[in-house]
C-alpha cells in the first residue's frame, strides 16, 4: 500500500525555520510517510538580498538543497505542512505568494480534505509566533484543508512549541532550535502523518 504523502513547504532566511522543517520531515518519515521537503523562493532580486547580511548566501545554499514547491507537489500530497518565519506578526510574503498561487487547484476542489498544519519561528521573544501560525489558519480554511493543531497530545508540548504548531525564537539569529523545540517539530510530523493515515486510509502509517 502507498504511504501517506506529506509536503512540507517552507520559507527560511537564516536556517531556523529550515531546521524545524527538517525535524517535521523526520517525524513524518518515522511515522511512515513519504515526504517532499520544499523551500519557496524569494520575491526580490539579488540586489535587494545583498542589502541584508547573509540573506543571498543562505538563499543560494538552501535553494541548492531544496526544490521549489509546485502545484504538482500540492496535488500529490495527502497533507501539507507550511513553515514560515514571522514578518510583523504574520506570514512571510514568500510563503503567502505560494499559497496565493494555489487558486487553480482550489477552484477545481483538489485541496478539499487534505491535512494542513503550520510551524514557524521569530527573531525576538514575543515576536509573533502564535499570531503568525494563526494567520495561516485562515487561508488553510479557505483552501478546504483539515487543520491539524498540536494541542498538548505529547509530552514534548509541555517544554516547547505552541498548541498551534512548532515554533522557535532565534534571538536575533543567535540561537538555533534546541532539542526540545525539535522534539515538538518531530511530533508535529508524526501527528500530521497519523491524521493523514486516518483520513486517507494508508494502513502502513504508524500512530504518533
TrEMBL record:
Keywords assigned: Flavoprotein, FMN, Oxidoreductase
Pfam families: FMN_red
SUPFAM superfamilies per the UniProt record, alphabetical: Flavoproteins (SSF52218)
Cross-referenced InterPro entries: Flavodoxin/NO_synth, Flavoprotein-like_sf, Flavoprotein_WrbA-like, FMN_Rdtase-like_dom
GO terms assigned for molecular function: NAD(P)H dehydrogenase (quinone) activity
Positions of the Flavodoxin-like domain: 6-183
Family recorded in the similarity comment: Belongs to the WrbA family.
Cited NCBIfam families: flav_wrbA, PRK03767.1
Protein name in UniProt: Flavoprotein WrbA
